[in-house]
Specification:
Radius of gyration: 20 Å
Shape: globular
Number of helices: 12
Order of helices and strands: HHHHHHHHHHHH
Structural class: mainly alpha
Number of strands: 0
Number of domains: 1
Length: 305
């Protein structure tokens, strides 16, 4: 008689969701380049407006409307999700601006830095310890950021804003006691009043670039809701099923795809300071990845023993 299969490790249970989320995010610049004539604030507003109906459809299918309503009545949950909603809105707006202004490389650098931000946040707020190799990785990355201060200051704010806002967002979503989908629905609900007002304003002024200016643009803006909700839902699910450090490890997929798009598809120039910074970040990632691989291998050996 065979023994029952052991439950999947947390990393294994969350890994498919993380790979799907970061894979979609990696190719997102291709989608938003189609909307670069639309004001970034309008794109952000439309993303939020069209995300909420999709969330409700999925929640109804999964019978999670009750969880959504219950969380709305919990002030502690609502307070945390209000903070996370502001952070993710800021992240989206800066990312859209980066794509529209041909700074995809700066955006990709921000998401390369994000896993190291995750490690620091995990150490500061979740009690996770920073190993010696992780400390070395963070130090190398810090040198890379210092180089950008000297030679690419005009885009450094993009990289740092994206890294810090998304890192803090992920931390909040990991600790908030609400499911992935209801949490996302509450975030979009909280952002809806301002977003609807902004979307209505741009339709009212009718500058001929945004929603209602043409069938193609209108459909693309509506589709932005799907592009927003689906990977974010996948990410929130992964964040609750994986260790925070392991989640950061998978994140290298998205900035790697974005880096290649910026260099070979959008033909952005790579400044010397950016090149040196990327080399240091990749070195930092190699050190960090080796340390993560070593730890996960040791944990598997202990589990087998």
């Amino acid at each position: 008689m065979t023994s029952p299969a052991a439950p999947a490790e947390p990393q294994q249970r969350g890994l498919p969701f993380a790979l799907a989320a970061y894979g979609i995010w990696g190719f997102v610049p291709l989608f938003f380049k189609l909307l670069e004539d639309v004001p970034p604030v309008e794109v952000l507003a439309q993303r939020i407006v069209w995300s909420l109906p999709l969330c409700f459809v999925i929640m109804a299918f999964r019978r999670q409307i009750g969880e959504y309503l219950a969380a709305l009545k919990d002030w502690r949950v609502l307070r945390l999700l209000l903070a996370s909603s502001v952070l993710i809105a800021l992240n989206w707006l800066v990312y859209i601006h980066a794509i529209f202004t041909d700074h995809v490389l700066a955006a990709s650098l921000g998401y390369y830095l994000n896993p190291l931000v995750n490690v620091l946040l995990g150490m500061m707020f979740l009690g996770e310890r920073l190993s010696r190799l992780q400390a070395v990785a963070v130090a190398i990355a810090a040198v890379g950021v210092a180089i950008l201060l000297a030679g690419a200051l005009d885009t450094l704010w993009i990289s740092l804003t994206l890294a810090l806002s998304f890192g803090t967002y992920g931390l909040i979503r990991k600790v908030v006691p609400v499911g992935s989908l209801p949490g996302l629905a509450i975030e979009t609900t909280l952002l809806l009043p301002v977003s609807a007002a902004a979307a209505g304003y741009y339709v009212w002024i009718g500058d001929g670039r945004g929603f209602a200016s043409g069938v193609e643009v209108s459909w693309l803006l509506a589709a932005a809701g799907v592009v927003t909700a689906v990977p974010l839902l996948l990410f929130a699910t992964a964040a609750r099923r994986m260790s925070y450090a392991a989640l950061g490890f998978v994140q290298y997929l998205a900035p790697s795809i974005a880096f290649l798009l910026g260099l070979f598809v959008f033909h952005e120039p790579l400044k010397p300071a950016q090149l040196f910074c990327f080399l240091l970040i990749w070195t930092s990632i190699a050190v960090f990845s080796f340390d993560m691989w070593r730890k996960m291998r040791a944990e598997r050996m202990v589990a087998v023993a």
